[in-house]
Design goal:
alpha+beta; single chain
Length: about 150
């Protein structure tokens, strides 16, 4: 009985040096990825909130393109959203309503020559404001005109 107990205790020594090194490396990589990519996702959340607040505006259909962009710029300024989201606002007017689109791509250097590419496409269609922020239509056809 004592020999069996001694044998099982020898196999319960815990992780080795290499095991701990692997765990620390994986945690370090995950923290690096999170610290590099989190700001882009925070900005995307504010873009969504900005479009939702714009969709709640009862005068949205009567606003000019410049007024819509100014309203979003004001929201972005208050919430400290800078860069690509603020430059990518497009307003397309159609027979059934207005589509406000914020479609952009961010390239974030991760380490050395490895980059992470994040794509965001948020849309507000005044004909379907309850579906806010999902990309409903392809605005690629309108980009050729801009």
């Amino acid at each position: 009985m004592g020999n069996t107990l001694n044998f099982s205790l020898q196999h319960q020594r815990g992780m080795s040096y290499w095991g701990w090194l692997l765990v620390i490396a994986v945690i370090g990589f995950a923290l690096t990825c999170a610290s590099k990519m989190a700001p882009a996702y925070v900005d995307a959340r504010y873009v969504t909130e900005g479009l939702k607040s714009l969709g709640e505006n009862p005068n949205l259909e009567n606003m000019t393109t410049g007024q819509i962009k100014k309203e979003l710029s004001r929201f972005f300024l208050v919430n400290n959203v800078r860069g690509e989201p603020t430059k990518s606002v497009k307003v397309v007017r159609g027979a059934k309503g207005t589509v406000v689109s914020i479609d952009y791509e961010l390239r974030q250097p991760l380490m050395y020559n490895v980059d992470v590419v994040m794509k965001f496409n948020k849309q507000l269609d005044t004909a379907k404001p309850e579906l806010c922020c999902d990309a409903l239509i392809d605005l690629e056809q309108f980009r050729k005109r801009d």
